[in-house]
């Protein structure tokens, strides 16, 4: 059985700098400076506070696969990311529990090139599974 450890909460934002400023006002610290993920065409920055990690995500333009979510939800938390040891095993386990893959496994350039897969479940929403690069 897979252990699913929360890695971060993904927070979609229109303007990463403005969102960062608001999180810093709440006591967050920058863990990883803004970086560009050319696979998903997004800017990402990680912030932490009290053992919690938030991933700020800003689509670079309308071509980003994240842009439609931004136009629909505006600034909002929208996924939980779970760190797992074996991506294939964890993916199969969640598929057996009613989750569906909607973005196939790929490298995550802004998370040490770990591999990620995005899945969805009607009751749980969007989850990202992260397998750390070894």
Automatic annotation (TrEMBL):
<dbReference type="Pfam" id="PF13669">
    <property type="entry name" value="Glyoxalase_4"/>
</dbReference>
<keyword id="KW-0479">Metal-binding</keyword>
<dbReference type="GO" id="GO:0046491">
    <property type="term" value="P:L-methylmalonyl-CoA metabolic process"/>
</dbReference>
<dbReference type="GO" id="GO:0004493">
    <property type="term" value="F:methylmalonyl-CoA epimerase activity"/>
</dbReference>
<dbReference type="InterPro" id="IPR051785">
    <property type="entry name" value="MMCE/EMCE_epimerase"/>
</dbReference>
<dbReference type="GO" id="GO:0046872">
    <property type="term" value="F:metal ion binding"/>
</dbReference>
<dbReference type="InterPro" id="IPR037523">
    <property type="entry name" value="VOC_core"/>
</dbReference>
<dbReference type="InterPro" id="IPR029068">
    <property type="entry name" value="Glyas_Bleomycin-R_OHBP_Dase"/>
</dbReference>
<protein>
    <submittedName>
        <fullName>Methylmalonyl-CoA epimerase</fullName>
    </submittedName>
</protein>
<feature type="domain" description="VOC">
    <location>
        <begin position="5"/>
        <end position="132"/>
    </location>
</feature>
């Amino acid at each position: 059985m897979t252990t699913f450890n929360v890695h971060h909460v993904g927070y979609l934002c229109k303007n990463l700098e403005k969102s960062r400023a608001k999180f810093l006002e709440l006591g967050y610290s920058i863990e990883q400076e803004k970086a560009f993920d050319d696979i998903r065409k997004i800017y990402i920055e990680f912030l932490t506070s009290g053992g919690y990690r938030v991933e700020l995500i800003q689509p670079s333009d309308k071509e980003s696969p994240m842009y439609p979510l931004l136009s629909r939800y505006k600034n909002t938390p929208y996924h939980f990311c779970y760190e797992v040891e074996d991506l294939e095993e964890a993916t199969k386990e969640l598929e057996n529990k009613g989750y569906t893959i909607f973005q196939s496994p790929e490298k995550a350039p802004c998370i040490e090139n770990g591999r990620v897969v995005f899945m969805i479940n009607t009751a749980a929403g969007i989850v990202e599974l992260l397998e750390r690069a070894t």
